[in-house]
Amino acid sequence: MNDMTPIQTTLKDWETDQEVRWCPGCGDYAILKAVQRTLPQLGADPANTVFISGIGCSSRFPYYMESYGFHTIHGRAPAVATGVKLANPDLDIWLVTGDGDGLSIGGNHLMHVLRRNVNMQIMLFNNEIYGLTKGQYSPTSREGTKSPSTPLGSYDHPARPAAFALGSGARFVGRGFDVSKNLPDVLKAAHAHQGAAFIEIFQNCIVYNKDVFNDFAAPKGAEDRQLWLENGEPMLFAGGTRGIALDRDRLELKVVDVVDGDWQAAEVLVHDATNRSIAHMLVEMPFGPFPMALGVLYDDPRPTFETAVIEERARASEGKTADLAKLLGKGQTWTVPGTAQDPIGTRTPDQGGDPQMRGRP
């Protein structure tokens, strides 16, 4: 069992000697630094930490983290990560995927790691495009996106990663974006959660989908377009002059004005991170009429998959002694004696196993 005692590290302890190779200006650089700054604050141990990725620009991440890592195959990182966690539940697993890797070929695997609630942090970098394969539209690309595979504009209705996670049974759903100063806080909350913690990170693809998130991520006027959620605090934005309330007739969210700071009179909702119904409404809020909901949208832990597996193993092995030789010799076996003239030998059946099979070659 690994020692989980927090240790002291610095950002430098998490940097590798590998040249970081993303396009100049890519949002992945900011996410990498956010993670490398966050891990020392968590007391994380590089010898106990594993980064596992699939295929895509984001999936180069393990090369740049001074820890253990696996760069796996397209869409299958959740399956590999589940295996690693079951083999050694003490390891701290970070799964790195993208909107293409995680929601197209990997959608099935991502769904199952979420519904099983395997204890790991899942960072999905969403740039709404396939960057590594030169700019084709992805499952999250907006309607009308022009790309090499949709030269006249995409007709597809985009997938919403956070809504997908909630629908798959995730017990933690967070959101941030690459250059946000609040992203480390979301990562810390995800790490504190016991179970599968899903974080959607909006990431600017400087080459193939430049500034697509500027409508809410651009610094100028950001407070009017971003709703940073904090458990137990009112859902306010625009400097506290506007808020999110519940339309009780239609059972949907609405934007309300807050006069003289009296958010209670405006019936602004107080964020309850354990309220799954409100979380579903928050991830589905259409941007424009509403701000972009960011931070920890949902956080309601339940027992983890690997804990149940360990308990089941303990029950199954109670009172039993491990004996590999006995296991291998169980059932029908064959003795193959060899001689100098016949090194392979003649198969002779041992007594045991299925009587009808004895003596058959």
Automatic annotation (TrEMBL):
Keywords: Oxidoreductase. PANTHER family: 2-OXOGLUTARATE OXIDOREDUCTASE SUBUNIT KORB, 2-OXOGLUTARATE OXIDOREDUCTASE SUBUNIT KORB-RELATED. Residues 333-361 are annotated as: Disordered. SUPFAM superfamilies: Thiamin diphosphate-binding fold (THDP-binding). CDD domains: TPP_OGFOR. This is 2-oxoacid:ferredoxin oxidoreductase subunit beta. Residues 55-201 form the Thiamine pyrophosphate enzyme TPP-binding domain. GO terms for biological process: cellular respiration; small molecule metabolic process. One of its GO terms (molecular function) is oxidoreductase activity, acting on the aldehyde or oxo group of donors, iron-sulfur protein as acceptor. It comes from the Bacteria.
